[in-house]
Design goal:
With 154 residues, the protein is mostly beta strands. It has helices at residues 30-36, 139-147; strands at 2-7, 14-27, 41-55, 59-64, 70-75, 82-87, 93-96, 111-113. 32% of the residues are buried. It holds the Pfam family GFA.
């Protein structure tokens, strides 16, 4: 069980989450590029998690995916920082936006997805698995995280 603290950019919202880190991956889809306002987004999945808001309240909106699933996206109502996502189809997982963590020094994605949408100027590591789109099954990403060296898993 890992305990992680984080918060939004303006500092009005603080959270603590505990759970088993199940995966950390980078996503290069256009949606992640848009919501991160960068070349890619990252997702840190925690299994069997417990989330506590230490300060402030999150706002949320429901994103309907092209595959027909619904993801609740939580963000700071003051500064708009994305903090975490919860896919209603997988209630045992919470997806944290890992850049919102207080300690990001240990973050090393175990895989990259939607590499077909990756920015052409961004070299992807050759020693990390990559998928051209969304995986049909995330089991391979979970296994890649488990196979990552301990130094990459926090």
């Amino acid at each position: 069980m890992q305990v992680l603290d984080g918060g939004c950019q303006c500092g009005q919202l603080r959270y603590r989450v505990s759970g088993r880190v199940a995966a950390l991956f980078a996503c290069h889809c256009r949606d992640c590029q848009r919501h991160s306002a960068s070349a890619f987004g990252m997702a840190l999945w925690l299994r069997d998690y417990q989330l506590t808001l230490l300060q402030g309240r999150s706002a949320q909106w429901a994103r309907h995916t092209p595959g027909g699933k619904v993801t609740d996206c939580h963000f700071c109502p003051q500064c708009g920082s994305r903090l975490f996502h919860h896919n209603r189809a997988t209630p045992q997982f919470l997806s944290i936006k890992p850049g919102s963590l207080d300690d990001t020094s240990w973050l090393r994605p175990a895989a990259h997805i939607w590499t077909d949408s990756a920015q052409p100027w961004l070299p992807l590591p050759v020693d990390v698995p990559g998928l051209p789109g969304n995986p049909d099954d995330f089991a391979a990403l979970l296994a890649a995280w488990q196979a990552a060296p301990d130094a990459c898993r926090g």
